[in-house]
């Protein structure tokens, strides 16, 4: 099975040089094409930091190791280059962009990525048709898609909007950083249905979450436990059920 995301002995720090704190500490992980892997772990384990390092967020410095997507080193790329290669991050707290309508933002993002790949821009009729179809699936009405990005949206609406962006862009590898945060049952199901619709033999996903409830809807192929910046345990979906029952202490105690 072809490996999509491969991380080897990755270390990374956050903060200014004299006060830099190591958050990722010798992390190894492989996600093959066609698989969904979940990362769970206690607060401060490095879950969100891992997503930021992989997507190139400012303020995080890689101090060792490697990360490749489809065999290409991504750590040396700018964030927009990583996006053009097919890497997508769904944020725990989506940002608001006043004055920029949702559809304008998404079409610009799609065309920017197409240009980087040497493809033609999407035509207005094709864009509108695709947008309308996906909006209906995700219960986003046409007026919502004309509003400024995330401005005045509820938590659930923001998350549904990120899934809409993901489905419009059709990335090769998805990183979902606590996408279930702040969602009620209905919104959780809508978001999960959107994520499940993206499952594909040539696409990989990394789902970062605290809770089993998301994994009831998005059933992972593997579950990894992250603690102190490293993967300390790996198993099937049953590992997430065990964590829900016992908490992290039992697993952490076994490894200590």
TrEMBL record:
Keyword annotations from UniProtKB, A to Z: ATP-binding, Nucleotide-binding
Domain ABC transporter: 5-253
GO molecular function: ATP binding; ATP hydrolysis activity
CDD domains found in the cross-reference section: ABC_FeS_Assembly
Matches recorded under SUPFAM superfamilies: P-loop containing nucleoside triphosphate hydrolases
Gene3D superfamilies: P-loop containing nucleotide triphosphate hydrolases (3.40.50.300)
InterPro entries: AAA+_ATPase, ABC_transporter-like_ATP-bd, FeS-cluster_ATPase_SufC, P-loop_NTPase
PANTHER family attached to this UniProt entry: ABC TRANSPORTER I FAMILY MEMBER 6, CHLOROPLASTIC
Similarity field: Belongs to the ABC transporter superfamily. Ycf16 family.
Protein name: Transporter
